[in-house]
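Colleagues,

For the teaching module next term, I've prepared a clean inverse folding example: a structure given as tokens, and then the sequence designed for it. I'd like students to try predicting residues themselves before seeing the answer, so please don't circulate the second half yet.
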């Protein structure tokens, strides 16, 4: 945890839109309090309509909060006039799902545009554009037009343009949702460089947990306008506390058996099944081996694997436990209590499916 003042701070922020055609008002953001530390990649995840875009628009002062306070880079946004808001916006870069490039301008022209608006002299502008295009790997496309580029290249131009005026914060609203998985990874790698090499704080808005898993340091989960969970990405994945978070985690970790897979596992393996989710820090496998030995039983991994969360390994393992009934029972009780394992029961006496497995099976099928 950092002790520096947060670069973005929201305190009890709500945004209520008047109902369309006199209908019921919509509370798009509902009493949100979060701090985003300078230098972090902060993810905001939620289903469509959860209020993510409104939250971003509040941070860059395109919407004004109905109540609460918002501070960006030390300046309070709420209650400011248009001139002060323009200054706030100037310190924030923004990239979009549909890239929002100007089709009539070249790549260089698009990147130069914010510099023209900021009245940067021509020679300086050209030098800055060259530098930015080199950073995003598009030097050879300077004279190309957006319609001659792939989706990934367009988003690189979007990123170069967003960085042109050297913002301290970059807001990425569904910036990879229009891209295929491979291109998504390229763009995420570039965003990671923007963060690590330029020290820019990035706020990533997405409904894709894989995006969060691959680059975010911390995340907030939104549902119906509220932030229902916030924490280190790794911890949130390892131990989701809110059902909405559990659903997102399940959509991204494919090592948890779906109901159909679990049924097949049960048919093949008559013994007691246990699902262990563990941080792979070395201590975890030691714990498992030791606990099995202490109870005088054997465990075989029958499903699962190790994936990466925030660049650290994380394991979801389904084990079949063999041994005397009482010993197996004692082992299962211990790992459920001390390691948050899920008892899956046996084929003849199955325990109810774990939340993660059930939802994974339903939603990612
Ligand atoms: N200008 C507006 N006027 C009225 N209602 C709005 C307005 N903007 C957003 N809303 C409503 O606020 C709620 C949150 O919308 P928002 O776009 O912030 O959600 P989201 O999580 O970003 O979803 P999506 O990913 O679909 O954009 C929705 O119910 C939406 O219909």
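(Answer key — instructors only)
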């Amino acid at each position: 945890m950092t002790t520096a003042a947060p670069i973005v701070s929201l305190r009890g922020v709500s945004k209520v839109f008047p109902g369309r055609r006199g209908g019921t008002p919509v509370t798009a953001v509902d009493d949100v309090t979060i701090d985003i530390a300078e230098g972090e990649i902060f993810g905001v995840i939620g289903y469509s309509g959860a209020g993510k875009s409104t939250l971003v628009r509040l941070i860059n002062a395109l919407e004004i909060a109905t109540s609460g306070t918002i501070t960006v880079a030390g300046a309070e946004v709420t209650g400011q006039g248009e001139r002060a808001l323009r200054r706030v916006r100037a310190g924030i870069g923004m990239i979009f799902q549909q890239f929002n490039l100007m089709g009539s301008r070249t790549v260089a022209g698009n990147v130069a545009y914010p510099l023209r608006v900021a009245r940067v002299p021509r020679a300086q502008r050209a030098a800055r554009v060259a530098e930015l295009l080199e950073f995003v790997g598009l030097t050879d496309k300077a004279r190309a037009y957006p319609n001659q580029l792939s989706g990934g290249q367009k988003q690189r131009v979007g990123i170069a343009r967003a960085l042109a005026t050297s913002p301290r914060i970059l807001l990425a609203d569904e910036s990879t949702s229009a891209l295929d998985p491979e291109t998504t990874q390229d763009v995420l790698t570039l965003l990671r460089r923007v963060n690590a090499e330029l020290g820019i704080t990035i706020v990533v808005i997405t409904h894709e947990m894989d995006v969060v898993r691959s680059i975010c340091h911390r995340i907030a989960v939104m549902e119906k306008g509220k932030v229902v969970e916030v924490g280190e990405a790794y911890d949130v994945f390892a131990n989701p506390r809110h059902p909405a978070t559990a659903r997102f985690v399940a959509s991204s970790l494919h090592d948890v058996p779906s109901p159909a897979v679990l049924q097949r596992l049960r048919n093949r393996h008559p013994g007691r099944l246990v699902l262990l989710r563990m941080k792979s820090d070395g201590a975890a496998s030691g714990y498992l081996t030791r606990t099995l030995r202490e109870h005088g039983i054997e465990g075989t991994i029958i499903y699962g694997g190790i994936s990466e969360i925030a660049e650290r390994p994380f394991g979801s393992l389904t084990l079949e436990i063999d041994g005397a009934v009482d010993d197996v029972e004692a082992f299962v009780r211990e790992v459920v209590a001390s390691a948050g394992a899920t008892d899956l029961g046996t084929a003849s006496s199955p325990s109810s499916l774990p939340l993660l497995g059930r939802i994974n099976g339903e939603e990612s099928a």
